[in-house]
Amino acid sequence: MDPDQRRAQRAAQARSFGEAAAVYERARPGYPAEALDWVLPAGARRVLDLGAGTGKLTRLLRARGLEVVAVEPTAGMREQFAAVLPDVEVLDGTGEDLPLPDGSVDAVVAAQAWHWVDPDRAAPEVARVLRPGGALGLLWNVRDPSVDWVARLDRTLPGAGEEHLGSLAPRVGPPFGPVERYDVRWTRPTSVEGLLELTMSRSWVITLDEAGRRAVLDDVRRQAQERLDAVGSLEVPYVTRCSRAKLP
Question: SS3 of 213, please?
Fold first, then answer.
């Protein structure tokens, strides 16, 4: 695939989330408290949730008593966000073009989102809206590949997911300092149908043709049922990959 085709594919995958906003809201997990403790700078009061999606992270930030403004580029996601969090401001924007004034937030947090931005353009734009001493926090939930049944499942799927590719060593760049990394391991109970919906919320599955999507889901159903029959329950092990970078 040449670079132009790759860019076109990424753009289509990024737009696809609006088509599956309700599934995304039902299927995607939240984030462990330990991860937020690590990425949020001490004393932060006003936080930008960048690429807020359906508000999974926003709800956790609000529960901590923080003032949150959300930015989300996809109309379908903003509609779902507004239905769930009608009292939180959600703006149309991207990491490269934030609709906020200079120095207006203490922290910017992006969950399952930084791999969609151009860091050469997004890092200076994020720095612009941060107050002195502010920080950028990045979060990704990925299935834990060290668990055998998850590793087998991942090997059968046609795409590893951008979050797997971008979360181990995310690039931020100037004017931020070095990127620090931290992992939080946890598990989430689910069902066969829940695992199917989780698969259906992935951009590379949303953009498959009907036959390709059906083949993927049939394979996931088979493996999930085999796991359920073997141990009597389904729990998805996750690693929340956390990164943070501060302004010098």
Answer: helix
pTM score, whole prediction = 0.81
Residue count (the chain): 248
Which class for 148: exposed (0-12), middle (13-18), buried (19 or more C-beta within 10 A)? exposed
Residue 227 · residue 149 · CB < 8 Å:
yes
Dihedral (C-alpha) 92, 97, 103, 105: value to the nearest 10 degrees?
Answer: 40
pLDDT tens for each residue of 27-48: 678 899 999 999 999 999 999 9
Is the confidence at residue 10, as pLDDT, over 50?
Answer: no
Helix extents (H) in the chain: 3-16, 21-27, 33-39, 56-63, 75-84, 119-129, 148-156, 162-167, 192-200, 203-206, 210-231
Q: If you search the block for the tokens 């939180």, which residue do you land on? A: 88
CA angle 202, 57, 35 (to 5 degrees): 100
Name the residue among 71, 81, 54 with its Cα closest to residue 109. 71
- Cβ atoms of 167 and 140 within 8 Å: the answer is yes
CA angle 10, 12, 13 (to 5 degrees): 65
Closest CA to 73 of 56, 88, 51: 51
